[in-house]
Here is the input.
Amino acid sequence: MPDIGFVGWRGLVGSVLLERMREEGDFAGIAPAFYSTSAPGGPGPSGLGFDSGRLGDAHDVGALSRHDVIVTCQGGDYTRAVHPHLRAAGWNGYWIDAASALRMEPGTVLVLDPVNADVIAEGLARGRRDFCGANCTVSLLLMALAGLFRAGLVEWMTTMSYQAASGAGAAHMRELAAQMAAVGEAVRAPLADPASSALAVDQSVREVLADDGFPRSRFGAPLAASLLPWIDRPVDGGRSREEGKAFEEGNKILGNEPPVPIDGVCVRVGSMRCHAQACTVKLREDRPLDEIEALIGGAHDWVRVVENTPEATLAELTPAAVSGRLEVAVGRVRKLRMGGEYLTAFSVGDQLLWGAAEPLRRMLGIVRSHLGEAGARRPARAEAA
Ligand code: NAP
Here is the structure.
């Protein structure tokens, strides 16, 4: 029975991961242990149908190195602090990680198995031990348009994202809700007065957004009733780091050589959960729309094409409609005025599912099968460090 250590399970990604594992019965046949960076010795997660015991110290390299697999959703700082010491101590187990810290390391495989099962299988066969989920927006982009990439139709692509607050973590999600509550409180009086004008309501909103007491410590600015066209730190070429990931991680997931140019603008919007993105694709050749929709919709089991009508779009292609669902929705598929090789599409997916937890959950299943098949080739455990 494989020993699996879980770190970062109480954050947004980690709690969705545990919930999905519970739903799918994934805890059967494994020996799980739970760790914390903030409350070692405290009680483990509840509601899993078994006693999860006391939390280990997530910085205890000796305890971690006893596991065949470590799954971490804790964050990049944690990965940078612990992973090198574990490897230096001789730990040869499988590291499955939601964070970005190791993603672009040459020995790391990015996991999104409906799209790159071949790249994952090759990595396992070559003895790779570090497997990371990709950036949530990138994973959702590839889940949405895998059919076009697989058919070799994408010459280049731009993406304009509309990213939910939860993409930044639990504390940010709470701050957006607190901002919404502050806005709601500010407009209570003008809304209650049927004689008040829309401009009076707007004035109340503007005043509360500008108020020094408006909650903004996480985002640095009002997100409710606004949007933030910068995510993460600046990198080269005037890009944000988030914008650079579509090209870097997207091509690494696909194993593209040469890489396909992908670039665009990433924007944080006031949705709670689910990232959306508008894509412009330059196709290598003109193909009829019905053929393109069939390629998109037939790529794997978790993509659904939404009819390009106002009714279907509003009913099925919004964060509110998609939240909590495993299917990634792709709609507004049409040709642009620039010509038959220019396609636009809009996609929405739950970034906590296929953008984060689900690729990790499935990678754990793939590793378990690999360990089962490998039998005697199970990773040698380090001597207790
Ligand atoms: P998060 O909600 O902030 O949780 C990360 C860790 O922070 C938790 O596991 C917990 O660790 C600690 N923590 C501190 N205060 C907390 C609070 N109030 N509630 C819950 N946990 C708290 O971050 P996340 O969004 O899950 O992201 C985890 C990693 O996944 C990051 O590297 C992120 O970049 C990556 N990722 C996130 C998304 C997404 O959509 N959010 C998508 C893809 C990848 P302890 O229990 O050890 O204290």
Notes: The radius of gyration is 22 Å. Residues 138 and 245 are 7 Å apart (CA to CA).
